[in-house]
Amino acid sequence: MATPTIPPKPDVVLLVDSTYSMNPAIGNVQANLSTILTTVQTAQPDALFAVADYKDMGDSQPFTVDSNLTASAATAIAAANSITASGGGDIPEDQINALYQVGSGAIGFRPDSTRLVVWFGDAMGHDPRNGKTINDAITAPTVSCGPGVNPGGVTPPGYQNAGFYRLVAADNLPGVMVTVSDTKSSASFGPYAPDTTIKLTQALGAAPSAVPGEGAVNWKILLKGDALLTATDAAGNTATATCKVPPKGK
């Protein structure tokens, strides 16, 4: 089976179960990490790497960020090499809390990156743990409207500006797609891949529609209300966000 293509601008988090039973696996990761990171940086030179490890809540440090995102492979390798296997005690460990922390601010992801978690572990997780459930960990990734883009052109005289958006969606799982729904009708368009550029226009009396755009705009979407974005990953997990659209009017 072919290795998947490395996505653009990856923020890669190496998340390691560092309890005692993982000692051989940790050694294997440490021995091969230099080759792995070199391969990734060759394919995507703007890749960043972070390293974190987790144990169990009974241990003195159940979750640790060993190195936040860095472009330095040497820094990431040194962080991984600092991890030692210890603790644990029972079979389930603390990965649910660790995954929640990774998706909720412990890692300083770039706003326009592709976020990847490379996770090494050998046991199930306590659910809940530290007040967080597996659903909390799943929903920690978010979807949002990216910064407005300007494809050029002139706004017609007497009309307000319509909204230009780049659809942004990131998740710990691959294959995220985004649909655009109308908050004032049952219309829904897509799904669209992340980084799709859309022009949103609101016209209360018009029929919602989506037509191909020109130039930097991939799609022109006309809605009665605002745009409700829904991102769905390969496992069926979803997250939503709303894009406000100024109405078209003279």
Q: Residue-averaged pLDDT, rounded? A: 81
CATH class of the largest domain: Alpha Beta
The outline comes out as elongated
* CATH fold-level topology of the largest domain: Rossmann fold
Q: SSE string, helix = H, strand = E?
A: EHEEHHEHEEEEEEEEE
- Which structural class is indicated by helix and strand composition? alpha+beta
CATH architecture of the largest domain: 3-Layer(aba) Sandwich
Terminal-residue CA separation: 58 Å
Low-confidence stretches: 147-161
Largest sheet: 5 strands, mixed
Keywords: Secreted, Signal
Protein name: Hemicentin-1-like von Willebrand factor A domain-containing protein
InterPro entries: HMCN1-like_VWA, Thr-specific_kinase-like, vWFA_dom_sf
Subcellular location: Secreted
Describe this structure in words.
InterPro entries: HMCN1-like_VWA (IPR056861), Thr-specific_kinase-like (IPR052969), vWFA_dom_sf (IPR036465). Keywords: Secreted, Signal. Pfam families: VWA_4. It is found in: Secreted. With about 250 residues, the protein is of the alpha+beta class. The protein has two domains: about 10-140, von Willebrand factor, type A domain (Rossmann fold, 3-Layer(aba) Sandwich), CATH 3.40.50.410; about 145-245, no CATH class. About 20% of the residues lie in helices and about 30% in strands. The chain is built from four helices and 13 strands. The strands form three sheets. The protein has a five-stranded mixed beta sheet with strand order 5-6-9-11-10, with no helix packed on it. It has a four-stranded mixed beta sheet with strand order 3-2-1-4, sandwiched between helices. Strand 2 and strand 3 (about 65-70) form a beta hairpin. Helix 1 (about 25-45) runs antiparallel to helix 2.
